[in-house]
Design a protein that fits this description.
This protein starts with a helix and ends with a strand. The protein has a single domain (about 1-15, about 40-210), classed as Porin (Beta Barrel). The chain is mainly beta. It has one helix spanning about 1-10; strands at about 25-35, 40-50, 55-70, 75-90, 95-115, 115-130, 130-145, 150-165, 170-185, 185-195, 200-210.
């Protein structure tokens, strides 16, 4: 119980002291995993991010990776991501396109506390953004809470991003949503996410589909 309380406090803390400073956006997310054999697996992911409900592209993210299963609850992965960002300039009507190629390494560990499912994800990124090279570390802590005798569940997570530069804090994401298990290999979630930056914050509505096959 003490461990659960500490985890819930960690997940909830970033909500305190920050308000909404920009209008809500929308993310449409697909996350897939293909088991190649007993050890190797393939990750693939598409995220279509909008500044508003839909139709005003903020970012298109394509990510893939090859993973290796360690034991029953852990996975080590080497991946690549392509990110196309449409960033507003000082003039709110003008955008500039920024392309990023990203290499990343991650380690995922899962375990249970009773019926609760926890996931830790540690990710190190090497980012080639236009003509710049950057590094970043991310730590993700997620918690799934199943409803009794139901295919529905609650999902929440907190993820912090730390730059490998003098300006260490990059952002923090807090998410809470409702999920439904369509089948043993398919889940869908709809939820709210708040991104906290150094001097601002932003709200998102996320629609996520998970497919394992």
């Amino acid at each position: 119980m003490k461990k659960l309380i500490i985890i819930l406090v960690f997940l909830a803390t970033p909500f305190l002291g920050f308000g909404q400073e920009n209008g809500p956006g929308n993310w449409l997310v697909y996350i897939g995993s293909k088991q190649l054999n007993s050890k190797w697996n393939l990750h693939h992911e598409i995220q279509y991010r909008n500044y508003n409900t839909i139709g005003n592209l903020e970012q298109l993210l394509l990510r893939t990776g090859l993973g290796y299963k360690i034991g029953e609850k852990s996975n080590l992965l080497l991946g690549y991501g392509y990110i196309n960002s449409e960033n507003y300039t000082g003039n709110e009507d003008d955008k500039v396109t920024v392309e990023e190629h990203r290499i990343f390494q991650q380690f995922i560990s899962k375990h249970n506390i009773g019926k609760l499912s926890l996931q830790h994800r540690y990710r190190f990124e090497q980012r080639f953004v236009a003509s710049d090279f950057k590094t970043r570390f991310r730590y993700f802590l997620g918690l799934n809470i199943p409803f009794k005798d139901s295919k529905y569940y609650l999902s929440t997570y907190n993820e912090i991003f730390l730059n490998g530069a003098s300006n260490v804090f990059d952002r923090n994401r807090v998410y809470g949503g409702l999920g439904y298990k369509v089948s043993s290999g398919i889940k869908v979630e709809v939820g709210y996410m708040n991104q906290i930056f150094e001097t601002s914050s932003r709200d998102q509505i996320n629609l996520i589909t998970f497919i394992n096959f």
